[in-house]
Amino acid sequence: MRDFVEHALDLLLKHDMTGFADLWATDGVLEFPFAAPGYPPRVEGRDAIREYLRDYPNLLDVREITAETVHETADPAVVVVEMTVAGVVVASRKPYELSYIAVITVEDGEIRHYRDYWSPLAAAELLGGVDELTAAFGG
Asked: Which residues pair with 78 in a beta bridge?
């Protein structure tokens, strides 16, 4: 499972959003339990996830993972990843650093469920406000 996580993070660092989305099962789910108003709480299906992630590198230029801890669980299909990502906000050219916790379920080498816990308020602050966050990621 650690190799899978490392591969996924490497794809993010390479800005390969298609490759990252391809890690999901055809009917996989990307979920945001702390979604801000106007932000999608759930994206279902590999194709929808690919579309959702497509413009991510045009918003945030991920340059490094500054902290990473992988927690294996009693369920071998589930891993919890704590990570801090650093880079540049593309529009403002300002540096950013944001922490995430992801609970990832992998079956048959594909992501079935990815719960992404991050702070919408911290992201909004980085992007210049809630309206900017909603415009960037909400649709």
From this structure: 105
Number of residues that make up the chain? 139
pLDDT tens-digit readout, 80-104? 999 999 999 898 898 989 999 999 9
DSSP string, 70-128: EEE-SSTTEEEEEEEEEEEETTT--EEEEEEEEEEEEETTEEEEEEEE--HHHHHHHHT
Distance between CA atoms of 25 and 29, rounded to whole angstroms? 8
The pTM (predicted TM-score) of the whole model is: 0.87
- Report d(CA 69, CA 81) in Å as an integer: 6
Tens of pLDDT, residue by residue over 57-69, are 998 899 999 999 9
Whether the Cβ atoms of residue 2 and residue 97 lie closer than 8 Å to each other = no
The amino acid at residue 3 is D
Q: Take residue 83 and report the two structure tokens written for it.
A: 């990570």
- Going from the N-terminus, what domains does the chain have, and what CATH number goes with each? 2-137 (3.10.450.50)
| Residue 45: both structure tokens together | 């299906």
Cβ-contact 22, 45 below 8 angstroms = no
